[in-house]
Amino acid sequence: MKENTIDHSHAAAIFNKDVERVNWHDQTLWFVRSKRDKSAHAIPEWEALRDTASKIKFNVLSNMHHYLQEFEAKAKENGIIVHWAADGAEHNKIVHSIIAKHGVTQMVKSKSMLTEECHLNDYLADNGIEVIDSDLGEFIVQLRKEPPSHIVLPAIHLKKEDVSNTFHEHLHTEKGNNDPQYLTEAARQELRNTFLTRKIALTGVNFAVAETGEFVVCTNEGNADMGAHLADVHIACMGFEKLVPERKHLGVFLRLLARSATGQPITTFSSHFKKPREGQEMHIVIVDNGRSTQLGREEFRNSLKCIRCGACMNTCPVYRRSGGHSYHNAVAGPIGSILAPNLDMKKNADLPFASTLCGSCTNVCPVKIDIHDQLYKWRQVLVKEGYTPSSKTMAMKGMSAVLANPTVFKIAGKAGRFVIKNMPFMVNNSMNAWYNQREMPAPPEESFREWYAKRAKESKDKK
Amino acid sequence: MSSRDSILNKIKSNQPTDLNELPSLSFLGLDKIDVIETYKTVLKGIGGFCEEVNSIEEVKAYIATHYPTAKRIITTIPEFGDIAETDWTNDDPHSLANVDLSIVTAHFGVAENSGLWVTDGILGQRVSPFIAQYLSIIVNKKDILPTMQQAYERIGNLDYGFGTFIAGPSKTADIEQSLVLGAHGARGLVVFLMN
After folding, report:
1. Which residues, 6 or more positions from A259, have their beta carbon under 8 angstroms from its beta carbon?
2. What residue numbers bound the domain in which A69 lies?
3. What's the angle, vertex CA A191, arms to CA A189 and CA A192, rounded to 5?
4. A270·B165 Cβ contact <8 A
5. What is the pLDDT of residue A396?
6. What pLDDT sits at residue A1?
7. Largest CB tally within 10 Å, which of A128, A311, A384, B55?
8. Could you say which of A260, A289, A318 is where a domain stops?
């Protein structure tokens, strides 16, 4: 999977070439958002739940040092082997060392955005380990050698015809059979064999409980459980922010997660792993990879409350019309655009600008992260640190010089009106992005100041 | 320094200096609902079937009618010993690959999402509700709780190795948002509400 290095606006422009498909993508995600609304509105105490969840996570952030050690101690007591990884590279090495220790070359994996973030699959492939992603959406994009375009709906950018073609090529399904039932059954048969033959299964973690040392994995398909309960070794990878203090707090988050994600009342399976089954080996890899840095950025700290429901993506007008791949980051959309600059400011400097700051993300976030405020704040940081394109900085500096001086402003206004009226080609050309899919209004005959001066003169003359 | 210690040190120096209080949960989950009706409606909405029964015999009759072709049925409930295998709990979990129907009991159910709480103690094997083609779960009607709030109050600090809430049959909508039942786990779920 090659890294997409095109910046968001250019990638979005390419995505937007197929108008019909963009409209379909937009409507599909809005449909998911609508289901979220219906589900949320059916819970009278929805806002109280969001508020409580946000406060619980706020407590976790302020007591992370203690909770992590509590979690580690309990997990060890439960017979789980705990590892710590400072960054993606260390995480990948740890996972590989466990696999290598058991002398196997194949692993089945359920959905884990953390392993996407760390590029685990590429690392393992380079080391001769074959990984099969077992979530249907991830299985589809893996066959196509694409990254997931959405954290909850990995193949949301694809139409059933695309899936049918991919399965025909790799699983030899009937050509042209686009029936989702038929295609899902084909994947079920294929992956069942995978589950039954893999000695090692890797899963993500939705929540980890400090009080008990258990972790919870949520799926609809049952793929995490099929993998974990059949394998000799279960590896669970988690960013350290997945912690909740006590078991009872799971109730709050499980009520919010699936409703926010897809509008379901809960995922089909909410599996609590506390101890390895008899004869099984269970590992937890706790990963930092920039999270402790983000914890220290007061303005962006709240982004660590995220429970990866994807609601901010489904509602985002920019995400819906630019697609997940445009964000060139494991987590796309509004929340991804806050998390990504923390991982690599230079590479992801474009992302906080991929937003209209409309605030819809903040309104749907189940843990009340001030997403659009943080996007705005990242812009300030990125400009200050010199990570924005010089064309933008120059334009802003020019604008600020014009707006700061009344005489310059007057002359610039006059010149602008003259140019738009008499030499439109000077501004309306391919060099000026403002004219992409946009027409400027007709220039007024006179400026407000001119009009005001004239009016004052006229009323004086009347007297 | 180990990664563990360096991560923990960095967290300690970067986390907020003041501890933010944990909120109380006692005011949650108090909305009045018709627990059984809600349970049934939600379960239907997510693709499960619900049968109200008065006895084990009624469950057996239902299974005989609805799964006439089932070749291998497993259970952990001794009363089903005449129609299902009960001696598989110490076998290699892979040997359950050909199970058509698994019958288990649940500790309790949750009305707001139709989830049923099961633990390895009553599953026999952790994989048993996932690997079977179809799943039947029996739960006492009086053990249906309103929300997840009550669910975790009920679980309390009970010990288990593995526990899961099962809400409906396994499903996916990963192909163009079209709902398909039977992704990797059970293709169908019948919940027997025992009076």
Report:
1. A36, A39, A40, A43, A265, A366
2. 43-289
3. 65
4. yes
5. 81
6. 42
7. A311
8. A289
